[in-house]
From TrEMBL:
Gene3D superfamilies: 3.40.50.880. The chain crosses the membrane at residues 49-71. This is VWA domain-containing protein. SUPFAM superfamilies: Class I glutamine amidotransferase-like, vWA-like. InterPro entries: Class_I_gatase-like, vWFA_dom_sf. Keywords: Membrane, Transmembrane, Transmembrane helix.
Length: 710
C-alpha cells in the first residue's frame, strides 16, 4: 500500500506546523509560583511535554485528513488451473450395459483423484445440474443415474464456458457416447479451453427395428378421417417383414405389414383412422417385436390428436343465385374451420329455409334486406340474436332496412343508380395483419357495382377499403367493419367479388390476395370474445415427460379488473380416470402454478374458485408426451468426439485410456493464473482511525483532569 496525495506533499509541513502551534499555545510555559517547583498550570515539565505531544499528534493528523489523501492497495490472487469433467448422463450412455459403464466411471474416479493430487481444481458437470468437487472426492461417479431423456452436448459445453468465464479453466474432459438429440452439434461451437473427449458406448450398429417418426395432424374434426404415417428404420433385418399396429385405448384399429429394406433406409406406411370422440385422443403406433432386437423401447410411439366439433357454422343467405355467392362459398370452404350452409331464398322451399333448430355463428346476407322484402323477416330473426353479420350490397338491396340493421355505415343512394369503383386499401387500418404491397393488385381488378349516393360511417367503424372512381380516390367506404358494437358487423358495399377472383387468377395464376382479405375480415367479426372471469390454462398444449407442467391463472371481477390472492382448486384427470387435486393461490408476483413428475398421457383439468359467493370454473386439456429420443439412436458417434477434440486442441481417448489422459493433463505445463486487483480508497474512510483519534483525545483529557488541569 502507498499514499497518493491529491495536493502538494509540502502541505504536510503546514499540517505539522498547525499542530505544533496549537500544542504550544495550549501548553506554553507559565511562571512558577513563589516557593513552588511546579508551573502555574499544575503540571511538571515531563507531563506538560507529554500532553503537548498528544495534542500535536491529534491536531496534525486531523489537519492531514483535510488534505484527503488516498490509499492505493494492490491485491494479488493465485488461481490454480481448473479441469471440468463433463459427464453425459443421458439414457443412451447406459444402453450399452451398466457393468461396462461402471468400469469406465471407476477409471474416471481415479482420474479425478490423480488430477486433484497434482494440484488441479476438478469440478463435475452433468446435464441439469452442476456439482463442484473438493479434494477429498466425496462424490462417487459410479452413482451417476444416467436418466436424462435428452442430450444437448452443445448446451452443456456452452454452460461450462459461461460459468467459468474469466477463470483459469484449461481443459474440459467430455465423457460421452457422442450421441446428441437436442441443440446444435458441439463441433459448431467456439470454446476457450481444450476439450479432451472420452468415448463411451458401442460404435457397432445394433440389430434393431426403430419407429423413427410419426407424421399426423395435431387437430382432427369429429367424424372425419385422418392419416397416421409411420416411418420405420431397420438394421440387420433386410428382406424380412415387420408388423405395425395402430391402437387406441388398447383397441386395435389397424394392422399392416411392411417389407424391411436395406440397412438405415426409411420404410413408410399409412393408417387411416376416424375421429369418433371429441377431446384429446391418444393413439399408439407399435412395431411387433422381432427376435434378436437390441431394444424394444424404440418400437413404439404415441400420437395425440385434438378432435374437435368446433367448426364455425356459417349461414350464407342470398336473395337469388349470383356468382358472388359461389365466390364467398369457395373462400369460406378454404378454411376447414367453417361449415357453410347456403340458402337461396328464391329457390325451392326446401333449399330456401334453414333448419329451425340450427344455431349459426356467422350470418352473410347477400342483397338482403331486399326490395321485395323476401328475406327481411328471416334476416331479422338471426339479427335479433346478435349473430355477427357480413352485409353484401347489390342492385336488389333495400337501403332503408339496411341502414337500420347495421352499425357500420349509412347509405343514402338514388334509386336504380350505381357507380363503378375499385378498392384502395386503407393504411390506417391496423386490426388485421395485411400486406399493403400485396393489396396493390386491387387497382388492377375490375370495378365493383356500388350504390351511387352518400356514405356516412357510424361511430366505432373502421374502413378496410376505400372506393376509387377511375383514378380518383374518394372518402366513401367500400369495405368497412365495426367490432365495438354488441353485434360485430362488416359491410361490403358492392357486388362483383367473383370478377376480382377471376382477374387475380388471370394475373397471378393464384387466388390468394382477395381470398385472404375476405377470410381475415370474416374471422375478425366471427371470433368469440372470451368473457370468462376465471381463466386457467397451461402455457403450452404439450409438455415433455419429466418437465414441469405450468398453469397460468387469470381471475377477474364483474368489471374485468384483475384479482389475486383467491385460493384456486385444480383437479387433473388422466386417461384412466385417476384424479389429482391441488390448491394454490395466485399472487401479483406469481400467477403461475407448477406440477412436477406427471407421467405420459392425455389429461383433462378443471379449476374452480369462489368470488363474491359465486363459483367460477375453467377447464381444458393438455398432453404429456414421452419423446423417447434417447432410444432412437443407440450407436455411439466417436467420430464426432474426435473432431471436437481436434478442433479445440484436445485428444480423443477410449474409456480404458484414462491413465494416458492423466499423463497428458499433468505433464503439460499448467501455470497458475495471477490476478491483481488495485483498489483506491480515501484514508478518511478507514473507520478505525476515528477510534484511534478518539482514544488519544480521551487520554489527553483524562491526564489533564487527573493532574488538576482545566
Amino acid at each position: 500500500m502507498n499514499f497518493i496525495f491529491q495536493s502538494s506533499p509540502w502541505w504536510i509541513l503546514v499540517c505539522l506546523l498547525v499542530g505544533a502551534v496549537y500544542a504550544f499555545a495550549m501548553y506554553q510555559p507559565l511562571p512558577r509560583l513563589v516557593g513552588s517547583g511546579t508551573a502555574m498550570g499544575g503540571f511538571d515539565k515531563r507531563t506538560t511535554y507529554g500532553l503537548a505531544a498528544l495534542r500535536f499528534v491529534v491536531v496534525s493528523f486531523l489537519t492531514f485528513l483535510l488534505l484527503n489523501p488516498l490509499i492505493r492497495s494492490l491485491r494479488t490472487l493465485t488461481e490454480k488451473p481448473k479441469v471440468v469433467l463433463a459427464i453425459d448422463n443421458s439414457e443412451s450412455v447406459a444402453a450399452a450395459g451398466r457393468p461396462a459403464l461402471n468400469r469406465a466411471l471407476a477409471g474416471l474416479q481415479t482420474l479425478r483423484q490423480q488430477l486433484t493430487d497434482k494440484g488441479l481444481d476438478v469440478s463435475i458437470h452433468t446435464f441439469g445440474e452442476s456439482v463442484t468437487d473438493d479434494s477429498d472426492g466425496a462424490t462417487d461417479l459410479t452413482q451417476v443415474p444416467f436418466t436424462q431423456r435428452t442430450t444437448d452436448l452443445s448446451g452443456l459445453l456452452s454452460s461450462i464456458r459461461s460459468d467459468y468465464e474469466g477463470r483459469n479453466l484449461t481443459d474440459v474432459v467430455l465423457v460421452s457416447d457422442g450421441i446428441f438429440n437436442q441443440g446444435l452439434s458441439p463441433t459448431f461451437g467456439q470454446y476457450p479451453f481444450a476439450v479432451q473427449t472420452v468415448g463411451l458406448g458401442d460404435t457397432i450398429p445394433k440389430k434393431d427395428i426403430q419407429l423413427k417418426g410419426i407424421i399426423a395432424n395435431r387437430i382432427a374434426y369429429l367424424g372425419n378421417q385422418f392419416p397416421v404415417k409411420a416411418e420405420i428404420v431397420s438394421n440387420g433385418f433386410q428382406g424380412q417383414r415387420a408388423t405395425v399396429v395402430l391402437r387406441q385405448n388398447g383397441k386395435e384399429l389397424g394392422r399392416q405389414s411392411v417389407s424391411l429394406g436395406k440397412n438405415d433406409t426409411f420404410d413408410q406406411l399409412t393408417f387411416q383412422a376416424t375421429a369418433t370422440q371429441k377431446g384429446v385422443q391418444h393413439y399408439v403406433v407399435e412395431i411387433v417385436p422381432q427376435p434378436g432386437e437390441f431394444s424394444m423401447r424404440n418400437n413404439r410411439q404415441d400420437v395425440y390428436l385434438d378432435v374437435i366439433d368446433g367448426k364455425e357454422k356459417v349461414l350464407l343467405l342470398a336473395l337469388t343465385p349470383h356468382p358472388d355467392v359461389k365466390a364467398l362459398r369457395n373462400i369460406l370452404e378454404k378454411n376447414q374451420n367453417y361449415e357453410v350452409d347456403v340458402r337461396i331464398l328464391t329457390g325451392t322451399p326446401a333449399e330456401a329455409t334453414p333448419p329451425v333448430d340450427k344455431t349459426y355463428d356467422l350470418l352473410i346476407l347477400h342483397q338482403i334486406p331486399d326490395n321485395g322484402s323476401v328475406g327481411n323477416a328471416l334476416a331479422q330473426k338471426y339479427l335479433a340474436k346478435n349473430t355477427p353479420v357480413l352485409f353484401v350490397l347489390g342492385n336488389q338491396s333495400s337501403l332503408g332496412p339496411f341502414n337500420t340493421s347495421n352499425s357500420v355505415m349509412q347509405v343514402n343512394a338514388q334509386p336504380n343508380q350505381s357507380d363503378k369503383v375499385t378498392g384502395v386499401f386503407n393504411p390506417e387500418f391496423k386490426q388485421l395483419n395485411l400486406d399493403p404491397a400485396r393489396l396493390d393488385i386491387l387497382s388492377k381488378l375490375p370495378p365493383m357495382s356500388v350504390p351511387y349516393g352518400e356514405f356516412r360511417l357510424q361511430p366505432g367503424s373502421e374502413v378496410v377499403l376505400w372506393q376509387q372512381v377511375g383514378s380518383v380516390r374518394t372518402t366513401k367506404p367500400l369495405l368497412a367493419l365495426n367490432i365495438t358494437s354488441p353485434r360485430k358487423t362488416a359491410v361490403l358495399a358492392g357486388e362483383g367479388l367473383w370478377s376480382w377472383r377471376l382477374e387475380e387468377y388471370a394475373l397471378t395464376d393464384k387466388q390468394e390476395v382477395v381470398d385472404e382479405l375476405i377470410q381475415k375480415v370474416i374471422q375478425l367479426i366471427s371470433v368469440k370474445e372470451d368473457r370468462r372471469k376465471l381463466r386457467v390454462y397451461p402455457i403450452r398444449n404439450e409438455f415433455v415427460a419429466g418437465e414441469k407442467v405450468i398453469f397460468e391463472t387469470e381471475l377477474y371481477n364483474d368489471i374485468y379488473e384483475r384479482l389475486f390472492d383467491k385460493p384456486v382448486r385444480l383437479e387433473i384427470s388422466d386417461e384412466k380416470g385417476l384424479t389429482r387435486s391441488y390448491n394454490y393461490t395466485p399472487t401479483v408476483a406469481n400467477s403461475r402454478f407448477e406440477i412436477s413428475r406427471l407421467p405420459e398421457g392425455a389429461y383433462r383439468y378443471k379449476a374452480s374458485v369462489t368470488v363474491n359467493n359465486k363459483a367460477e370454473q375453467a377447464s381444458g386439456q393438455f398432453v404429456v408426451r414421452d419423446l423417447q429420443l434417447e432410444a432412437l439412436n443407440t450407436t455411439a458417434d466417436h467420430g464426432m468426439l474426435r473432431q471436437l477434440a481436434q478442433q479445440t486442441g484436445g485428444h480423443f481417448y477410449k474409456a480404458s485410456q484414462t491413465d494416458e489422459l492423466v499423463r497428458t493433463l499433468t505433464t503439460r505445463p499448467h501455470p497458475a493464473r495471477l490476478t491483481s486487483t488495485e483498489e483506491m480508497n480515501e484514508l478518511i474512510n478507514w473507520r478505525w482511525l476515528f477510534f484511534v483519534v478518539l482514544a488519544l483525545v480521551t487520554v489527553e483529557w483524562g491526564l489533564r483532569k487527573f493532574y488538576g488541569g482545566y
